[in-house]
């Protein structure tokens, strides 16, 4: 599975690393791409081990907003 989420509130490199690190801690994550410039977070994952909802929660727990398109 691959999803791209719009995430608001990331403004520096540190934010980028916080979001990337939080997602990578989940099971079943195969790739994470975070761009502060475009506010996009792309995640490649195996949905047997992790859900879109869990990925969104991990981002929100770091204090960022996942925007519903
Ligand atoms: Mo940078 Mo991000 O100082 O929440 S870590 S803005």
From TrEMBL:
Keywords: Copper, Metal-binding. Coiled coil: none annotated. Residues 1-67 form the HMA domain. It comes from the Bacteria. NCBIfam families: copper ion binding protein. This is Copper chaperone CopZ. It comes from Pontibacillus salicampi.
């Amino acid at each position: 599975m691959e999803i791209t989420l719009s995430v608001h509130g990331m403004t520096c490199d540190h934010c980028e690393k916080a979001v990337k690190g939080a997602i990578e801690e989940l099971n079943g994550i195969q790739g994470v791409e975070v761009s502060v410039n475009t506010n996009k977070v792309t995640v490649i994952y195996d949905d047997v081990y992790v859900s879109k909802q869990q990925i969104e929660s991990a981002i929100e727990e770091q204090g960022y907003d996942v925007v519903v398109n």
